[in-house]
Amino acid sequence: MTFVVAQVPVSWDVEANLSSVREVVGSARAGDVVVLPEGMLSGYGEDLSPLDRLSPAVISDAVADVERLARSSGALAGAVVAVQLCREIRFPEQWQHLAAAGAQAFVYLTNAANVREVPGVWRSHLISRAAENQRFVVSSNVAHPDQHCPSMVVSPRGEVLGELPPGGAGVLRLTVDLADAGDWYLGQRRTDVVSVTSHPTQTRPAEA
Hints:
Layout: E1 2-7, H1 14-27, E2 33-35, H2 56-72, E3 80-85, H3 92-100, E4 105-109, H4 121-133, E5 136-140, E6 152-154, E7 160-163, E8 170-175, H5 200-203, E9 206-207
Parallel strand pairs: 1-2, 3-4, 4-5
Antiparallel strand pairs: 1-8, 3-9, 5-6, 6-7
């Protein structure tokens, strides 16, 4: 499977954001999985008050536009991919449950640009989520001078296969073999000591 990771600016201007999406998707090839930052259409930030002035109809139209772009890019080969967002990087039990439920890869979307965060911590989290679950992790963050989480692809062994320079806009295209995902470590969990109670209707990984 080929992932196209986009690290692009995100603003409160829906049309400008949509233009960035069109550009990235337009450069992708049929069957590529395009991964974009959190809040890519609406915009996102610590102060969410600009969303109060955003018309739901504008967002609905933008979502429909992106859906048309996705459908025009061609059908995808069957795969099971789980999606995690933002602070969910801090909750490894969620990722473990999704891996046990059949996810072969994690797509992680974030809008992480905070000078109060310790440099390198979120990068370490991404590597850990990949290695501890033996799954690929594909991360996309916003292009921002204060970016504290990388846009990158990590292998099931915890190896960084590709990473975009922080701060600026860029696109990373990488092909991986999802058959490299495995359950050797997950199969050794002490479920007699710790088990996770889930909500199946909310946590079933999506088929790509």
